[in-house]
Amino acid sequence: MKHGKGLTFVGDSRVQKYDKPKLNRDYSEFPGRTEEFYPDFLLKEWMAGAVFLIGFLCLTVAHPAPLERMADPTDTGYIPLPDWYFLFLYQILKYTYASGPFNVVGAIIIPGIAFGALLLAPWLDGKKERHWKKRPVATGMMLIAVGIIFYTTWESVAYHDWEQQNQQGQIVFSNLDAEDPVFNDLIRTNCTSCHGGELAGGSGPNLIEPDLQPEMVEAFVRSGSGEMPAFEGQLTDEEITAISEYVAGLELTSKDEASNVEESAE
Amino acid sequence: MSQKVTRRQFLNYSLMGVGSFMAAGMILPMGRFALDPLFKESSASDMIATSVKVADITEEPVSVDFTFEQTDGWYVSEVTDFAWVYKEGDEIIALSPVCKHLGCTVSWASDASNPERFFCPCHNGLYEKNGENVPGTPPRGPLDMYEVGESDGFLTIGAIKENELV
Amino acid sequence: MLNRIYDWIDDRIDITPIWRDVADHEVPEHVNPAYHFSAFVYCFGGLTFFITVIQILSGMFLTMYYVPDIINAWNSVYFLQQDVAAGVIVRGMHHWGASLVVVMMFLHTLRVFFTGAYKSPRELNWVVGVLLFAVMLGLAFTGYLLPWDMKALFATKVGLDIAESVPFIGEWIKTLLAGDATIIGAQTLTRFFAIHVFFLPAALFVLMAIHFILIRRQGIAGPL
């Protein structure tokens, strides 16, 4: 079908019918050793991708993604930690002039300035010169920023108690019954802030795994030990006995028999 | 001078009008839907009765449990919290045990070298008896406090509020 | 046979110029690691894209088992990781991929910065790239809550406290993200799920499309 000045279209569509030109270009017009994206260069990219994927799959098999025990908002003893790429921000918030009354500096102003500067980099550094050695201000600022991120991340990792982190979050299946009044009225207010919300350890030791005797627990609760305070006087004798028997009766179970995990409705 | 609106301008304005209507018609209900939490009235919390007699409260802080029903959208659950309660003169004071540093739980006189202070075991935060944070320790402010009341001789605990003693 | 099908389609909708533009464009010597090994730094952008594809695929498959509900979320994640064949690998890909995509994006940003590739005429693409970085961090933050384990809940509490410290509008932001003024619970989880699975990926796709179209239109920056 013909329209206008000798143009031919496919059927009554707007797609032109023409002799397909050879689209492969002559490379001689480009300087240096250029190569076409497909297939030459793409193969190199895919080889890099394949090498990466091998390493990546090995990582996923060697290190299963961590999963801590089910979230329990009432467990007040848990010390939180963000994922590693937010650690630097978390660490900045601990510095004197970025926390307390200056919290807004650390939480909003510093990250805001950093992000704004990154976003506006083409205009903050608007000169034509591209080589990093020939624009020392921009390069210096970026190196300082990267340095700060690395240093604060390292500081945060070094400060954190990883042993406690692993213990306070681990999945433990036990016969702990959170509905028991002894647990709800006594243990939740006196013990879990140190021994973990499910008594599987926090800043204080795990109370489920060791095979404890009631008399032993009672001695600890009465007179304390190390960092553990003595509860004699704070709690009545009956309360201490109830706690001791409850704690001594705790043991590990399989997932099916566990009573500490909220089962989904069946 | 009266300006003539061309046919093209008229059609453009009409397009903008109809377009805005369609955009608003779609976005308004969805926007109100998404913003709903902002307009939800936080339900006035009732005073919760505890099992502690007002007459039994001394000047020594003790932990007092209270259980309330928490409604989180469609999910209703029983939550047990506790407060540090003591008497200051005739006034009863109930302090929240949540540390103002990272939300750990503080306890009274649990640090041997600070027998008259609240102590947070996580990062050694200290508070005076009235909840004021001791300068130089990590917390960012004083402990919150609860409204308190009395019903048939028993202590009742109400809404959490900022510390008014400091 | 395949050729004839292709010709039949091409005859009607003329698709050859579209893919020819991508396939035949010249890749200059200074970005080709085969000629200069140091040119491997130009791989980080491509690897970021590759991991993003892995994230999208593994995320799509994870939703076959996952439920965004505070009673069932943890149980569903525990189940898919312990009881479903290859669950460890699929969740592992999504978990570790989230970390690696941040690393690769960081390296890609540094490469573009130190080679000055963000300068005129490529300012707009730099801005789109920085926005992509922000969207990716948003995906990381919202995805962290979804397994509903201890770490997830308390890290999100800290994150929302930081959002709350924004002057004037901080409490609104926190309430909008959490779905409730005080509780981090059922409504927070569904909100984060919606943001993680629908809103941010939509933004991600739009920005990535602009990022790639701009690269094709402007070509790669020349050698230093």
Number of strands of chain C: 1
Give the number of domains of chain C.
1
CATH architecture of the largest domain in chain A: Orthogonal Bundle
Low-confidence segments of chain C: none
Spatial separation of the terminal alpha carbons of chain C: 48 Å
Total number of strands of chain A = 3
Series of H and E elements of chain C: HHEHHHHHHH
User: Number of helical segments of chain A?
Assistant: 10
**Count of individual helical segments of chain C:** 9
Structural class of chain A: mainly alpha
How would a crystallographer describe the biggest sheet of chain A? 2 strands, antiparallel
Class by alpha and beta content of chain C: mainly alpha
Largest interface: A-C, 86 and 89 residues
SS strand fraction of chain A:
under 5%
Shape of chain A: elongated
The proportion of residues forming helix of chain A, as a percent range, comes to 40-55%
Nearest-integer average pLDDT of chain C: 93
| Strand order in space, largest sheet of chain A | 1-2
User: Low-confidence parts of chain A lasting 5 or more residues at pLDDT below 50?
Assistant: none
Structural write-up:
The complex is a heterotrimer of chains A (266), B (166) and C (224). Chain A is an all-alpha fold and 266 residues long. Helix content of chain A is 45%, strand content 2%. Chain A has three domains: 1-65, no CATH class; 84-159, no CATH class; 169-248, Orthogonal Bundle (Cytochrome Bc1 Complex, Chain D, domain 2), CATH 1.10.760.10. Chain A contains ten helices and three strands; from the N terminus they run E-E-E-H-H-H-H-H-H-H-H-H-H. A two-stranded antiparallel ribbon of chain A has the order 1-2. In chain A, strand 1 (2-3) and strand 2 (7-8) form a beta hairpin. With 166 residues, chain B is α+β, with helices and mostly antiparallel strands. Chain B folds into two domains: 1-40; 48-161, 3-layer Sandwich (Rieske Iron-sulfur Protein). In chain B, the strands form two sheets. Chain B has a six-stranded antiparallel beta sheet, with no helix packed on it. Chain B has a three-stranded antiparallel beta sheet with strand order 5-6-7, with no helix packed on it. In chain B, a hairpin with a 4-residue loop joins strand 6 (118-120) and strand 7 (125-127). Chain C has a single domain (29-218), classed as Cytochrome Bc1 Complex, Chain C (Up-down Bundle), CATH 1.20.810.10. The mean pLDDT of chain C is 93. With 224 residues, chain C is mainly α. Chain C is 71% helix and 1% strand. Chain C has helices at 2-13, 16-23, 43-62, 73-82, 87-114, 123-145, 150-164, 170-178, 186-218, and one strand at residues 26-27. Classes of the chains: A mainly alpha (266), B alpha+beta (166), C mainly alpha (224). The interface between A and C is large, with 86 and 89 residues. Strand 3 (35-36) of chain A pairs antiparallel with strand 1 of chain C.
